Amino acid sequence: MENVLITICGRAGSKGFKNKNLKIFDGQPLSYYSLSAAQLFIEQHPELHVDVCLNTDSDLLIDVVTKRYPEVTVLHRPEELCGDVVPKMMVYQHSLRQMEALTGRQYENLIDLDITSPLRQEKDVSGAYEMKKSRPELDLVFSVCPARRTPYFNMAKLENGYAKRVIDHHFTARQQTPPVFDLNASIYVFGRKFLLENETGFLWDGKIGMYEMFDTGIIDIDSEEDYRLMEAIAHYLYGTYPAFGIVQANIRKQDRT
């Protein structure tokens, strides 16, 4: 039986959006959406042994998570991994090593579900995982959305006081440019070997696959404005695309049990 580790990672506080990991999103703690998605993934994959851990330095977040999901293993994040410029890769590595030491299991893959991405569909975690499994040459699969703006035409950089193209090219129409994608920071699926051997903290050192998600459903919440906009989008999606409501419905189901 394959062992899979799902990580939920969140620091105490946030300079961009204070205490964002503790926010209530449409009536439920923000972290519950990632935990509900993890729970649904486990139900869909009885052939796997899946452990879930919370990696944090926030006692408040620990209280929120363990109240509803006592089966989640809490990993206390050391101070040296709490800085603003610490690569998140190091937090994933810490999670993997700690959980393997605690459980005695070797995890073939690690799936990280970002707390600030509450609008995954039920299929998305499985879709990203299955892409990683179907392509053994990949070190990592991360989730993306089609980019609404392209660096070929809609972005510029400042160089010596003058606007310059971000990418040097001679295309005359957007239709000529390669398709580009936004990394939406929702789902990461790492292979164990790549994660443990990475010494730079740089995702791009590996061979990467992209799992494409529904674009409107994902905005990385990093400000009060993002948060309010995401709630408005959630209400629209719940009413228009019922599949988006499954993760939230799974949380509410537990309220009734």
Automatic annotation (TrEMBL):
<protein>
    <submittedName>
        <fullName>Acylneuraminate cytidylyltransferase family protein</fullName>
        <ecNumber>2.7.7.-</ecNumber>
    </submittedName>
</protein>
<dbReference type="GO" id="GO:0016779">
    <property type="term" value="F:nucleotidyltransferase activity"/>
</dbReference>
<dbReference type="InterPro" id="IPR003329">
    <property type="entry name" value="Cytidylyl_trans"/>
</dbReference>
<keyword id="KW-0808">Transferase</keyword>
<keyword id="KW-0548">Nucleotidyltransferase</keyword>
<dbReference type="InterPro" id="IPR029044">
    <property type="entry name" value="Nucleotide-diphossugar_trans"/>
</dbReference>
<dbReference type="InterPro" id="IPR050793">
    <property type="entry name" value="CMP-NeuNAc_synthase"/>
</dbReference>
<dbReference type="Pfam" id="PF02348">
    <property type="entry name" value="CTP_transf_3"/>
</dbReference>
